[in-house]
């Protein structure tokens, strides 16, 4: 099926585009009243994730409002640990929690091998349905959490302020830590490949908690396993390359190593200037980002000003996918998202004139 809008794919391959493409992490989510209505109808967050028809509905909702250049699968990064028997559940106002946690080598050894096609069939059904309903409108992005990020949640049992248990685990028993990460890297690779087979045209790995590690620990416990995933991914599907985006939150220190990992794009959070990032890694990979999500609380004039500043900082030439530096937050006015998306297209077109 021919894509009518392939700007994101072209930018990820550092090819010329008419305007800078834009999508937004968490673009299908709680800031939209129609999403909240669908979730209520589903009965809860995981009920929504496990219902391919409703997950498809939610994934398409932002495209009805805004001129986004890509859709993203509606799911959660913690579906893999859940499928491994850790018992994922959500408490309102407290985020994700697991009924079982990893505390020992025995716990790691007891984890089953993941078969994404059967254990996470509802995700693949959602991917296939979203892709069919998009009908070539824009490309579909699939995703997973990084092995380190998944391990953090599995060890801590929930979010954390200091990540004490996760760090204690890898430092006290690195053998168990590496076994856990190897199992997760294998699961993520197969999970993403299954998403690609089902119709995902781009994949992103969210290394959400990579930035909590020291440089040496990040290389050992996060980067090594993301490299393994990148190496194991299907490189093309349906006769077209399938780009991979690596996003390490607070990973600006390690851009050169991310760019050398084999991925096609480095995702940036908002703590690094995108022009400086480009000067450091040149044309090795595309760059994605990186407006502070909090700018969306500001006035339309302020949003346009910040969009323009980021476009100017990146400068002329291909290889930029505009995004936020992390996911949009629930309290953002949906009208401000329209200002953001339209500003990216309008101001980048002027920059090309």
Kindly describe this structure.
This protein has about 350 residues and is α/β, with parallel strands linked by helices. It has one domain (about 5-350): TIM Barrel (Alpha-Beta Barrel), CATH 3.20.20. It contains 16 helices and eleven strands. The strands form three sheets. The protein has a seven-stranded parallel beta sheet with strand order 1-4-5-8-9-10-11. A two-stranded antiparallel ribbon has the order 2-3. Strand 10 (about 285-290), helix 15 (about 300-315) and strand 11 (about 320-325) form a beta-alpha-beta unit. The two termini are about 30 Å apart.
Number of strands: 11
CATH-derived topology: TIM Barrel
| Overall mean confidence score, pLDDT | 96
Beta-strand content estimate? 5-15%
Number of helices: 16
Largest sheet: 7 strands, parallel
CATH class: Alpha Beta
Q: List SSEs in N-to-C order.
A: HHHHEHEEHHHEHHHEHEEEHEHEHEH
**Which shape, going by the Cα principal axes?**
globular
Q: Structural class, from helix and strand content?
A: alpha/beta
Radius of gyration: 19 Å
Low-confidence stretches: none
Adjacency order of strands in the biggest sheet: 1-4-5-8-9-10-11
CATH-level-2 architecture = Alpha-Beta Barrel
* Cα end-to-end separation: 31 Å
Helix content estimate: 40-55%
Number of domains: 1
């Amino acid at each position: 099926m021919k894509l009518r809008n392939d700007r994101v794919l072209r930018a990820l391959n550092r090819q010329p585009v008419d305007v800078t493409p834009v999508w937004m992490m968490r673009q299908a989510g709680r800031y939209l009243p129609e999403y909240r209505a669908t979730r209520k109808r589903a009965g809860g967050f995981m009920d929504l994730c496990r219902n391919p028809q409703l997950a498809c509905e939610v994934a398409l909702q932002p495209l009805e409002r805004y001129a986004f250049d890509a859709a993203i699968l509606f799911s959660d990064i913690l579906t893999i640990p859940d499928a491994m028997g850790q018992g994922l559940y959500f408490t309102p106002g407290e985020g994700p929690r697991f009924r079982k946690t990893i505390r020992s080598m025995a716990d790691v050894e007891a984890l089953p091998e993941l078969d994404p096609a059967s254990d996470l069939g509802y995700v693949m059904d959602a991917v296939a349905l979203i892709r069919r309903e998009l009908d070539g409108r824009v490309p579909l992005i699939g995703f997973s959490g990084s092995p380190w990020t998944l391990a953090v949640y599995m060890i801590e049992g929930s979010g954390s302020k200091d990540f004490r248990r996760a760090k204690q685990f890898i430092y006290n028993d690195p053998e168990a830590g590496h076994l856990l990460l190897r199992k997760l890297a294998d699961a993520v690779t197969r999970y993403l490949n299954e998403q690609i087979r089902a119709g995902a045209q781009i994949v992103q790995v969210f290394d959400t908690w990579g930035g909590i590690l020291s440089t040496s620990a990040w290389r050992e416990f996060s980067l090594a396993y993301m490299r393994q995933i990148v190496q194991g991914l299907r490189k093309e599907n349906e006769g077209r390359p399938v780009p991979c985006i690596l996003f390490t939150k607070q990973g600006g220190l390690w851009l050169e190593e991310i760019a050398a990992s084999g991925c096609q794009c480095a995702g940036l959070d908002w703590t690094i200037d995108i022009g400086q990032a480009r000067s450091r890694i040149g044309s090795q990979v595309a760059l994605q980002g990186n407006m502070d999500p909090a700018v969306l609380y500001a006035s339309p004039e302020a949003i346009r000003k910040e969009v323009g500043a980021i476009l100017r900082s990146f400068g002329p030439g291909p290889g930029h996918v505009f995004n936020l530096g992390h996911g949009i937050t629930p309290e953002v006015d949906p009208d401000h998202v329209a200002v953001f998306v339209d500003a990216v297209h309008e101001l980048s077109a002027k920059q090309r004139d």
